[in-house]
Specification:
The structure is a single chain. By secondary structure, the protein is an alpha/beta fold. The protein has a single domain, classed as Rossmann fold (3-Layer(aba) Sandwich), CATH 3.40.50.2020. The protein is globular.
């Protein structure tokens, strides 16, 4: 078992403080599935999941949708540890054309807004029919660039969170809940 996939608490020796429970996430993702399916009746959106953080959310959301869809991924990088570099780089681009298509960007978290804004700008330049954002988490208190997701799972305070796909340097993605990583002492960690 690797630390990145260890059960809750095994990475740091004790469970991390829960911000959003696994049950609450499950309920909200099902609700988002109903809302999004209603918005895309008789349309087949391209779900563009933003790697790597959104992969668990995107998988659960896709199963909650009743509308048809195509899945693509886009890898953007801007974080090193707990801090945003302020620069967003495209690490992996889409594998399909989206001109004339409905696009739904699936984000794990909209924090500063830089990554979501970069994804929107990149994809809008390709002439989709429509483009919307769904974010599991929204942290408006940290917004630097104004981005307003159409659908939001949860609005959270200014805490650094991990779990349910979100990570800290590749760790903690496998937690089934959203936890605060603010209390972690990472001195000496590489």
């Amino acid at each position: 078992m690797t630390l990145a996939n260890a059960p809750a608490g095994e990475e740091s020796g004790a469970p991390l403080p829960t911000v959003i429970s696994a049950d609450a996430i499950s309920r909200r993702v099902r609700e988002l599935g109903v809302e999004i399916s209603a918005a895309y009746t008789d349309r087949e959106p391209v779900l563009v999941l933003v790697l790597h953080g959104a992969f668990i959310f995107a998988a659960d959301l896709a199963r909650a949708l009743t509308a048809g869809y195509q899945v693509e991924s886009l890898a953007l990088a801007s974080y090193h540890g707990r801090e945003s570099s302020g620069q967003v780089q495209v690490v992996k681009d889409l594998g399909c054309e989206i001109a004339g298509r409905d696009v739904l960007i699936v984000e794990d978290i909209v924090d500063t807004g830089r990554t979501a804004a970069a994804a929107l700008a990149l994809l809008e330049s390709r002439d989709p029919r429509s483009i919307e954002v769904v974010a599991l988490l929204d942290k408006p208190s940290r917004r630097v660039i104004e981005v307003n997701p159409r659908w939001v799972g949860f609005e959270i305070e200014d805490v650094f969170v991990v779990g349910y796909g979100l990570d800290l340097d590749g760790r903690f993605r496998g937690l089934p809940y959203i936890a605060s990583a603010d209390a972690l002492d990472l001195k000496g960690d590489s």
